[in-house]
Amino acid sequence: MTTSIGCSARSPDNRRCKETKKPFNPCDHRPMLADKCVSGCALTGIYRKDKNRLHTLKGHAKKSKETFMDNPVRHYWEIRLQKLKKALESNNFDVYIADNKDLAKKIAYNTLIPEIAPRTISWGGSVTFVGTRLYEALKNDPRYTILDTYDKSLSPEQSMQRRRESMLVDLFITGTNAVTETGHLVNLDMIGNRVAALTFGPKQVLLFIGRNKIVADRQAAFDRVKNYAAPVNVMRLEKKTPCGKTGECENCSSPDRICNTWTVTEKCFPKHRIKIVLINEDIGF
Ligand code: SF4
Known about the structure:
Blueprint: E1 46-48, E2 54-56, H1 58-63, H2 65-70, H3 72-90, E3 94-98, H4 101-116, E4 120-123, H5 127-131, H6 134-139, E5 145-147, H7 156-165, E6 171-174, E7 178-180, E8 185-189, H8 193-199, E9 204-210, E10 214-215, H9 218-237, H10 243-246, E11 261-265, E12 274-279
Bound molecules: iron/sulfur cluster.
Iron/sulfur cluster is lined by residues 226, 230-231, 234, 241-243, 249-252, 254, 257-259.
């Protein structure tokens, strides 16, 4: 017998998700039935709608009262993430929602990257990306030519050259320092390769964004970056700047200053070039 989340109907054909082995929900989500579920079936499972698109199933969430009572924080962020998804999509970004970092990796590794079919892949400046463990998976995948800008065996000159080369890859992976509720990406970069790739160069860009990066507006984004993200990154990278001691920006002139180039990405151009996986967890800085 098949069961479904918050739905009295039964799957007529007993089809099950290949990943989770759970039955597909046959209720109002039936038009979305597909060959493969790339996420958890319960709640905000993400399903393939057609060949090129993924999307979350809102209906599951509404009908599973017990789960929401058990997980009010996750439910709260699910609502926030759905609103942000709409805002970002209205700015021409492609957006997917994952319940956690493991599912974010699955969405990217099993579905998005195979669909993009990149020959070359690189990345830059994202603790969130590393946190999903996609970094390890890609590094060891012979299907792709990897330009690893995190390679610690490189000399400073080689590392800089690799960053230059990464501007022309098929797929560049990174994160963002902040995202506004209106769907704008706000970033501050030391070297500039991360914001350069986000703006122009690589054919496609994939971003991982934890829920902790959401801010109300552009001013809140600037504050977050200067008085939280930058000092924490200074501490992580063991840079010698005053914010590493005070925890807030002192607008330094230190040689180690990591704050050099701001970008605000209001819309994705061309449409669909930047794909975003929003993660319903605190991850990254
Ligand atoms: S400008 Fe200097 S003090 Fe301010 S956040 Fe950046 S590195 Fe820290």
